[in-house]
Amino acid sequence: MNNHQMKELSSAERFHAMMEDLGFNKHLSPAVLAAALDLHEGRLPRPDLLNEARNFFATRAIFVPHGLEGLPSIWLSRLSEILWSTRKPEWEFLPYFITSIGVEGGILRIGYPREQWVLGDRITFWDQLRVVVNLSLQPNQWRPLSPADEREIWEKRPDLRRELLALG
């Protein structure tokens, strides 16, 4: 598989289409999601979160993926726990070999070198893992905001009030 195909497999466009096919409706606009993610920046010790994530990947997944630095702090704080929860009980390491992680279009992109291009709309194991991780990260586009986040965005971002009203 070439580099272009690998990038397309983890693309935001493909992921959004897959989520729609699975029956998930977006609850948040990109602007509201970005505001919700921004609320949590600075509240968590980012250098510590990066060190913890790198340590997790180095010790439990054998390889530290490229792109951890670009993740929102709130997602970075939960990523290791979410990935670890996807393992079978007898696994001592994650076998996914995630090589790249990034944010695009409000989703967490996950790249796997072992992933194969499949014809048609079949949802692969790799896709299932992307869905589980993206739905588990909070906030995300497919789950409502917490009341506290919604209230804080309402107060701090009057420009988003119309979009917040549309959420209900």
Give the helices and strands, then pairings.
Elements: H1 3-9, H2 12-21, H3 30-40, H4 46-60, H5 73-85, E1 100-104, E2 107-111, H6 125-136, H7 147-156, H8 161-167
Antiparallel strand pairs: 1-2
What this model shows, in words?
The protein is mainly alpha-helical and 168 residues long. The chain has one domain (3-167). It has eight helices and two strands. The chain has helices at residues 3-9, 12-21, 30-40, 46-60, 73-85, 125-136, 147-156, 161-167, and strands at residues 100-104, 107-111. Strand 1 (100-104) and strand 2 form a beta hairpin. The chain starts with a helix and ends with a helix.
For the termini, the CA-CA separation is: 43 Å
Number of domains: 1
Beta strand %: 5-15%
Strand order, sheet with most strands: 1-2
Short description:
With 168 residues, the chain is mainly α. It has eight helices and two strands. Strands 1-2 form a two-stranded antiparallel sheet.
Defining key terms:
single chain; 168 residues; mainly alpha; two-stranded antiparallel sheet; globular; disordered N terminus
